[in-house]
Design brief:
191 residues, mainly alpha, 8 helices, disordered C terminus
């Protein structure tokens, strides 16, 4: 569980630092899926047979998930802001990352038979926590972090915190499924 949390936080920090350091949306769109998939696969190494497949599925599904988020900008986030308060970026990030992680979770569920259908719900919840946490940390800390260390630090910290938040529900759920992974390994399955 701790390795999973560290992997998610580190992958998020590196992606954010690259985005804030000048790669901008290239890092978000093209590098976030591979970097997080690799970090997560490394955390699952030794527990999950063929952990490299986790990275492959994550990077393959991340970009289509991001592409589906276009309609979420504008009216839905504005309506949530008007109805529930807070700020528009909070809801925009929450909805976007929920959708992205639902798509990624669907791909992971299809590739790994030991994941139950609950994985998509847990991954979606993690996505909401990712978006909300990143937006909140940036609201509270991005300005001081930019003044101290620059944009790369501010973006790295906010994205790292968001991915750490994603790691909480997903990590607890995966830790509870460890017996299923090991059962598949002992039966000779290579899920």
């Amino acid at each position: 569980m701790l390795i999973w949390l560290i992997a998610n936080a580190a992958g998020g920090f590196v992606t954010g630092a690259l985005e804030g350091g000048g790669l901008h949306f290239f890092a978000t769109i093209l590098l976030q899926g591979p970097l997080l998939g690799l970090a997560q696969a490394l955390a699952l190494w030794g527990v999950l047979p063929r952990a490299w497949r986790w990275a492959l599925v994550t990077l393959t599904m991340f970009i289509p998930g991001l592409m589906l988020t276009g309609p979420l900008s504008g009216i839905p986030a504005t309506r949530l802001t008007e109805t529930l308060g807070l700020w528009e970026v909070f809801w925009l990030q929450a909805m976007m990352m929920m959708l992205v992680m639902l798509v990624v979770g669907l791909g992971q569920w299809a590739a790994f038979h030991w994941l139950s259908g609950w994985w998509m719900a847990i991954s979606t919840l993690g996505g909401a926590m990712l978006g909300m946490t990143s937006a909140t940390v940036c609201l509270l800390a991005c300005d001081p972090l930019m003044q101290t260390g620059g944009n790369w630090l501010a973006t790295g910290v906010s994205m790292g915190a968001g991915w750490l938040a994603y790691g909480l529900p997903t990590g607890f759920w995966l830790a509870g499924r460890k017996d299923k992974i090991e059962d598949g390994r002992s039966e000779g399955r290579q899920d």
